[in-house]
Write a structure and sequence with these properties.
Length: 432
């Protein structure tokens, strides 16, 4: 339960909140993403006819949402540019809040504030300041690293314009995955942010990744499912339950994103216990409803404790990707006669996995804007999904992540992609 003094602060300021609270948009998205509002609660709030009724409904719900609800309410107010209301809850933080470069990416001011940002590796190391590592000279590249990180208020996916891409969607089932159902499929997000009771630190800023991903996947016409703070066994149970979802029978593809701490080949539950990424993939590779359908896994987690300070590729050269995109070489097994005469697909085929970093290395997270990898992923997909194949998009992700570095220590990061896809994959936004 919420502490009594926190409940009293909400009660004393109820009139101000009812009069001034702007509910829709970033504020609701934040509370939903961190698990303070479930789908039913969200629908109950949005069905209210007036803003005052919505505000009143939230003030009734939040005090019943556990000891962390007060802090999440405060964060949602700051993030939605309602700091004057946040200061009513925590007046002692007012001066600090005004000094800090609080994230307000939904407003133009936030785009001028990202010169000083705190970054954290997913395993407990220093909090360096984020700076762009180099210039961008490719066509349609972002002007600077801020454009990649500041995607929260500007996630819009263009519809397919090119006739060639349209023909690919409709006329090339042998070479391109069919990805035209509405919705395209389910996009599951597991966000492990709180690791209380373990040696692992809380992953501050992770909820911002959730908001970005939620908006992106909805733009791409996926049904989004969000799970917050799951223990290791709960992760396995939820994914096994998901693999049996009947919607997969009529969908075109499936996406799973896991945001957590990790080590080589694993992600951690909030209890500190590991779950092998291979085990996660196997759950869905054995799902008959997803046979022959692309299954995309995006893993934001450290894969070790190593750090990378990079190397100079050439005098003044900042445009080369230092580690190339890694892929599995797809080779068939020995062919044998099949009694049924039916073509069979290898169980681990049609899988793509993109990880925030390579084995044995840390990945970096910005406490005020989210992780480097997810920010680059959301930016790249939102800007290119209408024209580019997925592996082209993910090569750009590698490029963007490689160009970032921390100021303290000059640490670098490179994301990695592996796959057993048999065809090209396009999102085909707004096509049917």
């Amino acid at each position: 339960m919420m502490q009594r003094e926190d409940k009293d602060k909400i009660r004393r300021n109820r009139v101000e909140f009812t009069n001034d609270l702007e509910v829709d948009g970033v504020f609701l998205d934040h509370l939903h993403a961190v698990g303070m509002l479930n789908d039913a609660m969200l629908e109950n709030i949005t069905c209210c006819k007036t803003r005052r009724e919505k505000a009143s409904k939230i003030l009734d719900i939040i005090p019943r949402r556990g000891p962390d609800a007060f802090g999440h309410l405060y964060d949602a107010l700051v993030e939605s540019d309602q700091g004057f209301l946040a200061d009513l809850l925590r007046p002692e933080n007012e001066n600090k809040r005004k000094r800090e470069d609080a994230i307000r990416v939904q407003s133009a001011r936030s785009r001028q504030r990202y010169g000083r940002q705190i970054s954290q590796p997913s395993d407990e190391q220093q909090n360096p300041v984020l700076q762009p590592a180099g210039s961008y000279d490719m066509v349609d590249e972002p002007k600077n690293w801020d454009d990649v990180m500041n995607t929260l208020g500007d996630i819009q996916v263009q519809s397919v314009q090119d006739d060639y891409i349209r023909r690919l969607a409709l006329d090339n089932p042998g070479h391109v995955y069919t990805n035209l159902t509405s919705p395209r499929g389910r996009a599951v997000i597991i966000n492990n942010q709180s690791f209380r009771g373990t040696k692992l630190t809380d992953r501050f800023g992770s909820h911002l990744d959730v908001i970005k991903l939620d908006r992106l996947f909805r733009e791409l016409n996926y049904e989004v499912v969000i799970h917050a703070d799951l223990k290791a066994q709960e992760i396995v149970f939820k994914l096994q339950e998901e693999s049996n979802n009947p919607m997969h029978r009529t969908s075109s593809s499936f996406i799973l994103t896991i945001l957590s701490h990790g080590r080589k080949g694993t992600v951690f539950g909030t209890d500190g216990d590991p779950v092998e990424i291979d085990k996660v993939q196997k759950i869905f590779s054995e799902c008959e409803s997803l046979l022959d359908k692309p299954k995309l896994f995006f893993i934001q987690a450290c894969q070790g404790e190593g750090t990378d300070q990079g190397k100079i590729a050439g005098a003044g050269d900042t445009t080369e990707i230092e580690e190339k995109l890694k892929q599995f070489n797809l080779q068939p097994d020995s062919e044998t006669a099949d009694a049924t005469g039916l073509d069979k697909t290898p169980s681990m085929s049609d899988i793509l996995t993109a990880t925030a970093t390579v084995p044995d290395m840390v990945s970096w997270r910005n406490t005020e804007a989210g992780t480097w990898f997810i920010s680059a992923l959301v930016y790249s997909i939102s800007k290119n999904a209408h024209r580019d194949e997925l592996q082209q998009i993910l090569t750009k992700v590698n490029n963007y992540v490689a160009k970032a570095e921390t100021t303290k220590g000059k640490w670098k990061q490179i994301s990695q992609v592996t796959h057993t896809l048999r065809k090209s994959f396009y999102f085909f936004p707004r096509m049917s």
